[in-house]
Design brief:
Strands 3-4-5-10-9 form a 5-stranded mixed barrel. The protein contains 3 helices and 10 strands, in the order αβββββββββααβ. The protein starts with a helix and ends with a strand. Helix content is 17%, strand content 39%.
Length: 138
């Protein structure tokens, strides 16, 4: 039990490698979609789908596909979860979970330029466009 607790603490501190040396989670945090918060959930979820691998670059969590990386904005309440040697990103409200490093499908929408301008400054300063607002994962 101590080993598991210590492993989780190290992972969340950003100092470990999970699952076969793939996913190293530094200080990367899951950026919150300001349009999908606990206090203000959307009535309708965006359902455009994209497929790729969860990629962690610096402080940003993105989806890599066809040489392009989308910076992902997650519903508020999304969290990391360690299960065995696999790292998952778990969405709230039973909207699914994504295995870091595996090919996954996300539904959501890319933000148009007006939507990007509404993002907090640190998002735009640290993570690159385009931004993809995640609605669900499978």
């Amino acid at each position: 039990m101590r080993k598991l607790t210590a492993s989780v603490m190290i992972l969340l501190a950003g100092c470990t490698t999970v699952g076969g040396g793939f996913a190293e989670i530094p200080t990367a945090r899951l950026l919150t979609n300001p349009f999908d918060t606990i206090a203000d959930r959307p009535d309708v979820l965006n359902t455009a789908a994209t497929t790729g691998k969860i990629d962690v670059t610096g402080q940003c969590v993105g989806l890599a596909r066809d040489g392009v990386s989308l910076t992902l904005l997650w519903p508020e309440g999304t969290k990391y979860e360690l299960e065995g040697s696999s790292l998952f990103i778990v969405l709230p409200d039973n909207r699914g979970r994504a295995v870091v490093g595996k090919t996954i499908t996300l539904t959501g929408s890319t933000l148009h330029s007006a939507g990007e301008k509404q993002l907090p400054d640190p998002y735009r300063a640290v993570c690159a466009s385009p931004f993809f607002t995640v609605s669900s994962a499978y």
